[in-house]
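tmp note - phospholipid:diacylglycerol acyltransferase
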Amino acid sequence: MALIRRKKAPERENQGTSDVNITDDDNKKNKQPLPTKQKKKVWTCLDNCCWFIGCICVTWWLLLFSYNAMPASFPQFVTEAITGPWPDPPGVKVAKEGLFAKHPVVFVPGIVTGGLELWEGHNCTEGLFRKRLWGGTFGEVYKRPLCWAEHMSLDNETGMDPAGVRVRPVTGLVAADYFAAGYFVWAVLIANLARIGYEEKNMYMASYDWRLSFQNTEVRDQTLSRMKSNIELMVVTSGGKKAVIIPHSMGVLYFLHFMKWVEAPAPMGGGGGSDWCAKHIKAVMNIGGPFLGVPKSVPGLLSAEVRDIAVLRAVAPGVLDKDLFRFQMMLQHVMKMTRTWDATMSMLPKGGDTIWGGLDWSPEEDYCLNKRNQNHNDTKNLDRHETKHLVSQEKNANYGRIISFGQEAADAAASELNRIDFRDAIKGRTVANCSCQEVWTEYHEMGFGGIDAAVKYKVYTADEVVELLEFVAPKMMARGSAHYSYGIADNLDDPKYDHYKYWSNPLETKLPIAPDMEIYTLYGVGIPTERAYVYKLSHSAECTIPFQIDTSADRVDSCLRGGVFTADGDETVPALSAGFMCAKAWRGKTRFNPSGIKTYIREYNHAPPATFLEGRGTQSGAHVDIMGNFALIEDILRVAAGATGEELGGDIIYSDILKWSDKINLSL
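out:
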């Protein structure tokens, strides 16, 4: 018994020990750490941006999915429910009348709307042979932007190809039918011409490298010679029927140059003789033609901006001025690239103060396009003569002052302006240090003295704008002055005007001797169009572009908004530039039109689309969207089918172009 007791005692001890151990383990397991106070996540600006971009992308893809999923007839169904039945497309309408293809048609695209493709490049362009660098998807801009900008630039000294780079225009109708996917330029017009029997054998897209000066397109690519040969071939194969030429935008100036080139003797010209145009051209139907230039080209060359960029800067002034997203650096790259494109200088204002006005007057001085009755796209019943202008009773806009430094200078009387001449100011490389010259521009060679002098001159008229650009960008303007001129000829018989630099200026050259030919100017009106600008000195002028549009400059009940004065036009070309030559300088027999070629003005009053499903609309007067305007397309189809300007109904005018033209004192 004692032995048994001895054995049980250790068992109890072990059991007790085990109980104790279990209890300790349980206590350890049950013991939880004390709760700690969690830090609240801070919502940053980056989170906001990510959410914002995400919402935009999701919305975009949902809309895209919905658009692709809906029946093709749905947009038309909705629009017809709102505005009534759609009219027949112009091609269908004139085909029902029995009209058909008669005269061969030549399209001359404008600046930036023609595609450019790569034929030779540096190592960074591997895999891009014959791929579009301009037009299409613009994919290479995002993938390799600096490489793209390098290959889109021309040589800063010669204005031709840089070493080891060959970028050439795309050929055929596809060169400019669409600028980018879904964004038509010539496609709608081509489709309507096809409805009356046209095809590639009697339609020709005269594509060219729109970066080059007009004469250099012939020197490098023989583009003018190709255009001449193709027109001659189409006239022969159509049984002797003359061609209808349809230039758009800068293509209008390019074809003016061509008409002088083709008749001029070789080697400077095409050697076609003085009667070539009379033999081969029935009509020239100019669309949105900047005959006398566009003020919009001035800020593009001066500060690489226009109203849209200025508005963007106004929306986020702190962000863009501080260069948080390297916006200023991007503008410098854009300036470096575009200042090598000599063609841009062809669109500087021509005719000086005589045409565009001086310090205290302008042709449009009593007109302000604050509001305008814009007929929506009521495709059922449109009164094309219905329009209303509102004249500002507050203060006339000084449109003649194309550039003003400060709103005070823009508004001041001419006698109150205290201007200091900038022409003899001392320049010097005192502005930029090495860190500032990541992107070279000619501003880095001006110095503080040059920049300050340009600002203190305060206001610049059309004559002085050219001098300002010669002061701030002498290398660019040296190339430009070799190819373009911006004056008014005193004596058109002077042999100096036989030089090609004058051929694209209608005020320094004569129309061909072709009394049976017709010239039309077709353009939109009713849209505020850039006419003059208020500038200021940039906050960081020592490292960036020193001048920028002053978006704080506004005037209630006037045409000044965000530093930009606007007048009537098509959003790009003022009506004054598009209409003056056919309204006055070429009307009847004049020294600019010695054979009395008949001229017609056809204005298209802008009407925005009734619904977003209608796309860019069928009655738009905007500079590019007008290419889908049914009334314009119908006019072109009728002329191509044999109609004359008189049969179309002569002039159709909504703007005050005749009144403005009368104010211009030009010797005819």
